[in-house]
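Re: your question about Transcriptional regulator, MarR family

S., sorry for the slow reply, the queue was backed up all week. Below is exactly what I fed in.
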Amino acid sequence: MSHISDINSAYQKLNARADKLYEFIILYHNYIYAHHTYENENFNMMEIHTLTYIDDSPGITATELSKIWHKSKSAISQVIKKLVDSGYIEKRYKENNEKSVCLYVTEKGQRLSSVHKAYDVADITQTTSYLIEQCGESDLDAFYRIIEKYNELLKSDLEL
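Result:
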């Protein structure tokens, strides 16, 4: 019986900290998939960041995007379809290869991408200032180092 008590005690101690991480992940996930308005258009962060990524990487493929975003090709295809249907990106076949589709922003897509970049610069600057004010720059630097290492750990787990 004491073995179960030891496990419960260790769990309570470790879980109190882990719960903060779980809450952050859930809240950030909800934030990413909530719709935001850019130029009177509603997109979630995944959609708008995909548009901006295509703007910054003309000719990228859906397969490459799925690897970058760690999403299925089907999930990326749905995002691409919305962006194509809305007139923000277009598909072009590679020369002499009708199987490989490259993605490019349209003029309309480039304008929206620029609006999004300006929004992100302001938002990230404001968030960074708030976090430095609340926690200090060294803590913020440590947070990003930890996130980088956590990402490496998660990626290695996913590769198994």
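The chain has a mean pLDDT of 90. Residues 1-33 form one domain.

Happy to talk it through on Thursday.
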